[in-house]
Amino acid sequence: MRTTSRASRALVLAVAASTAVGLSACNRSSDSDTGTGGQAQIGVALITKDSTNPFFVAMQNGGKADAAKNNVKLTVASGKQEGDDQGQITAIEDAIARGDKGILITPMSTGVNAAIKKARDAGLYVIALDTPPDPADTVDITFATDNREAGKLIGQWAAAQVAGKPATIALLDLFSDKIVSVDYNRDQGFLEGMGIDVKDGKKNGDEAPTGKYTASGGGDYTIVCNEAGNGAEDGGRSAMEKCLAKNPNINVVYTINEPTAVGANAALKAAGKTATIVSVDGGCAGVASVKSGVIGATAQQYPLKMATEGMAAIATVARGGEKPKPDTGLDFKNTGVALVTDKPAEGVKSITADEGSKICWGN
To answer: Which spans are transmembrane here (predicted)?
Structure first.
């Protein structure tokens, strides 16, 4: 059933409530003097993929704002850019050397797994944020968006837009030389949402290049390309240019994140083409791109909640408290997702860009 205004308002209120823990950190006065009832301060490292992507900046800022609540000495580190495994490995080794009690990390790739194991062997409690490692038990637990579900939402929405007409699809992924769960879960989830059969659910690009999609009545599809944009605007533009060179008639574009989507749109515009672009993240800039029509729909996630709840969990465990547990049916704690679009689709629950802007993150 088409999402009504009342249902939409109910959804945004539910999402806002679920993220209240993270968002309230920005408005909380410092309680570093009292800590947690006189308990000793503990060291925690927050290691993101980079320090420029608005998603990771929001995560870092949320962690810093909330550290005093748990009497945590938070050290923030990151790779230099997406793909910098060694930068994260160095930060993990530094956390061990400092005697930190735990690590929050958005793992770059399987290349950092050995360093994470070294930290856990040294007694640190390690929580992955946003990107579940492969395998999942590389860390103690993951706090993340259900990226598969995020992909399915934008896939279902995209199928409703083509509505039985041929779908000529470009898939703009994260990497071509690394296997990252967030990458294949979003890509494969999108295809599943479109009703396209996937072969190996943990591998991008092995599905049949042509066939039938079954969502929203179904129709023919052609997958033109799987190109890596490295999660950046310039990468998204160059990846889209490569795809257009293969087939100028692309009408559906999946993008790993919103900077990639903006770059893809620039390439389409330069070529005098238009297409339905879908993405994942839900930062304020991305929601604004939905409002302006650059992105048709995006799946919104909540990095502040990941950071603040993860940090609180490490503090609890370090002081002898209960360890967090995965949500039922998942191997991680789900921090929520909502589809943001101003063109609601039949049977796909969503919120508007105006509603999404009230709970977005970043600038």
So the answer is: none
Together in a domain, 92 and 208: no
Q: What is each CA distance from 7 to 38, 161, 345, in whole angstroms?
A: 45, 21, 13
Domain presence at residue 337: no
Per-residue confidence in pLDDT tens, the chain, 363 aa: 333 333 444 444 444 444 433 333 333 333 333 344 557 899 999 999 999 888 899 999 999 999 999 999 999 999 998 889 999 999 999 999 999 999 999 999 999 999 999 999 999 999 999 888 889 999 999 999 999 999 999 999 999 999 999 999 999 999 998 888 899 999 999 999 999 999 999 999 999 999 999 999 999 999 999 999 999 999 999 999 999 999 999 999 999 999 999 999 999 999 999 999 999 999 999 999 999 999 999 999 999 999 999 999 999 999 999 999 999 998 899 999 999 999 999 999 999 999 999 999 987
Domain-embedded: residue 330? no
Whether residue 254 is found in the same domain as residue 134:
no
Nearest to 19 by CA among 359, 269, 362, 312: 359
> What are the distances in angstroms from CA 213 to CA 155, 226, 270, 275?
10, 17, 29, 18
49 is in which domain, residue-wise? Answer: 5-145+302-325
How many domains are contained in the chain?
Answer: 2
Quote the pTM value.
0.77
Tell me, yes or no, whether 117 and 212 share the same domain: no
Question: Are residues 121 and 141 both part of a single domain?
Answer: yes
